[in-house]
Amino acid sequence: MDRRGRQEGIGVSFEGTWPWLFLATSMPDSSLIRIWTDEFLSLLKKYRNHPSILFWTVNNEMKFYDNDPDLARAKLKMIIISDVVRRMRAVDPTRPVCFDSNYKRKGKDKRLGADFMRGIDDGDMDDIHMYPMV
Questions:
Q1: What's the pTM value of the predicted model, to 2 decimals?
Q2: What is the 3-state secondary structure (H, E, C) of the chain?
C-alpha cells in the first residue's frame, strides 16, 4: 500500500515459452511439441495463484497462421495450439487466454477460408500490436 492506503501492484500477461517452435515453414517433431506443452502447463500450475497475473498468452508473435504457405500445416498447428488453450483453461479457468501476442481474429476467414477456424479455440482476446513510425 502507498502512504494514502491505496493498493499498488503490477499486472502481467504470462507469455509462453519457445516462440520459435512453430516457425512459418516448419513442423516440429511431436516429442518436442509434447515437451513444450508439458513445460508451459507446469509453469501455469506454478504461477496460477500469483496475484499479478491478469491473463495467459500462449506465445509471442508465432504468426504461423499468417506466414505458413502450407494451409494444411498451418491448420494442424492451429489445432495443436487450440488444444493447448483448452488445457490452459483446465489448469486455470479463472483467467482469460490470449492465443498469441499480435493475434487478430478478425479477417482470418477471408484470408484462410471459412472452415479454417472451425473447431478452434483461439482464446478470449486479440492482442493487436502497433509499431507506429514516428
A1: 0.85
A2: CCCCCCCCCCCEEEECCCCCCCCCCCCCCHHHHHHHHHHHHHHHHHHCCCCCEEEEECCECCCHHHHCCCHHHHHHHHHHHHHHHHHHHHHCCCCCEECCECCCCCCHHHHHCCCCCCCCCCECECCCCCCCCC
